Amino acid sequence: MASTLDELIEALRCLPGVGPKSAQRMAYHLLQRDRKGAVRLQRSIDEAITRLKPCSRCNNFSEHEVCDRCASPTRDPSQLCILEMPADLAVMEQSHAYKGLYYVLMGRISPLDGIGPRELRLDKLLERATDGLVEEVILATNFTNEGEATAHYVGEMLRARGLRVSRIARGVPVGGELEHTDIGTLAQALLERRGL
Amino acid sequence: MASTLDELIEALRCLPGVGPKSAQRMAYHLLQRDRKGAVRLQRSIDEAITRLKPCSRCNNFSEHEVCDRCASPTRDPSQLCILEMPADLAVMEQSHAYKGLYYVLMGRISPLDGIGPRELRLDKLLERATDGLVEEVILATNFTNEGEATAHYVGEMLRARGLRVSRIARGVPVGGELEHTDIGTLAQALLERRGL
Ligand SMILES: [Zn+2]
Ligand SMILES: [Zn+2]
Q: Domain map of chain A by residue range?
């Protein structure tokens, strides 16, 4: 019946950037050409929403209340690197230039999108950063306008609490995103971070 | 853990037009901002792939072996209208200009995409059209190059079997798609169909 199909098309529209036409194309594709892919997608969504919750310490997606990285005794708890998204964390780890801990904002301050400090839940970051072990906060948000504004806001907030705050060096090209930066540049930018 | 997330991102790439970057954006969106939407999407896919199979008569998605429309005693079984996609059927029904039955190709002949008569499974159409009840076949594929080629091929195939074959009139703008045609134009095009 049309209703089951219509419901699928409507449900696909919850995906960002998917309008009515592409939702329809996606539904036909799944039903006609890629039922295996459809089964896999359905199970992956189920697994992901069931298993992944924000880590209580770093805010990244995690299968446990505290993720493996935050629980690791080999990471330096005196350094806290602040990032926008999980993909940024992945590329930072690949640079092998950092041994401290992370906090993932899961976004950035973006007034045009109605995302301010409250929507970013910076209170959680504040609590995390003031655990008594963190000595230095390294701001590694993107060098876009929004990333810079976020770094500025977060930096002021944490400096007011007596934390040492630094910003990774602008080795990352202006307007560029961490995720698209080669890891050598990123390692250099981390090395040349400057106090704020 | 990364693996559950990576699996979700990978699974999203089975959707047409979704590359690695947008799959990632979609996964974050589902997990962070729209878990309700994610649950709904997961269930809709499950329902759709479990319930919807091709109707054995019209080839459209159906929850039964023969869909309600094909089983209806009020439709004229002597007319068979051939369409590319389910969305075309929906708009044709909205025109209220047609009381016969349908056959949905679920595609079109498209050599560039490797879709020929065999991939379109035109043998199923041939069997359907030669049930002894169908007298006239109305070709209502799109007026795109591929739709026209499909109409030509299918028309020749069915005329060779002694069926009367017509093409809806080119009231539909050249290069246009049924789905984007206003229903008045569509009704007119159906009325002015010409024998092939
Ligand atoms: Zn963590
Ligand atoms: Zn049917």
A: 4-51, 58-167
